[in-house]
Write a structure and sequence with these properties.
Length: 348
Amino acid sequence: MIKTTSKYLIIGAGLSGLTTAYELYKAGETAIIVLDARATIGGRILTTNQIDFGATWFQNHHTHVAGLLRELKIEKFPQYAKGQSVLVYSTMAPEHYFQNDPNAPSAHRIAGGSTALIKKLAAPFLNQIHTDTTVLAIEDLGDSIKVVTNKAAYSAEKVVSTIPPRIAARIDFLPELPNNVTEVMKKTHTWMSNAIKVGLKFKQPFWKARNLSGTVIGQVGAVTELYDHTNHGETEFGLMGFVNEALRDLTPEERQAKILAYLTKYLGQEIMDYSSYEEKDWSQDKNTSCDTIKSIYMSPTYGNPVFADSYMNGKLLFSGAETSPLHGGYMDGAIYSGKLAAEKLKHK
């Protein structure tokens, strides 16, 4: 039995899905329901203890992020990069220290963490977001679409799937999507699906006092990238970065010991004075990753043309960071595709 009927149904309460809902809401369309399999909204934007374990940075050419932040009155601030940075390129040679080019374009972070953007976007329609709701099947009924979940069935005039294509491939589509579309969905790499992030908090930014930027680039060893993660107000001090995936098969305790030993070697004994230590292995998140993890170290290709088309007689659209023809895999791509989906819905 169909529980809820809505004009628009959006699958995924990540940045793309919430952008689409926000744009529709601005245009006066309030008959919107957003479904998400997670217990919380945000998708791969996740800020815990003021550390961004998901999407974190954007750059000057990411104009859609900057524009949305201005519209929502959320501040941005530059990634701290002053002082010496550390490059570890060999186990047989000492570390190399380098200065970041002060004239190089800076990456930016979002004041309050990336989750601040999610909270502002979702605020107007928060009670229309249904969490812990996994989509199992999508059926074309002719004049509407039926969406079956683990909790109830929904009916909508239009549906937008904004979850990663590889995750969306788990859904039963009735009738089935064209074979070439299904194949593309299964082969589209999911951004963050293979990443392990680590975040440490400190009472004081000891690295700044020693003229270190907090940046460590590790071509070998336990940590591949590390950056200063002090908050915008400079009241919370931290370091955050990416862990070598070779450590995935260790126990959490073994992995932590290797990470701390590595960072102590290159940043100093003060690393052990951390006030909190947290990790996020996105490969263990069933809504992001799958059983066969494939690490991609070159930029994957996103924005396949099949995602620009509509399906089920124009009632089903695809959106999201992986589908975006512009800046795919970035927050900017998620926002761009979210706006694009809203425009398509409004003009059909």
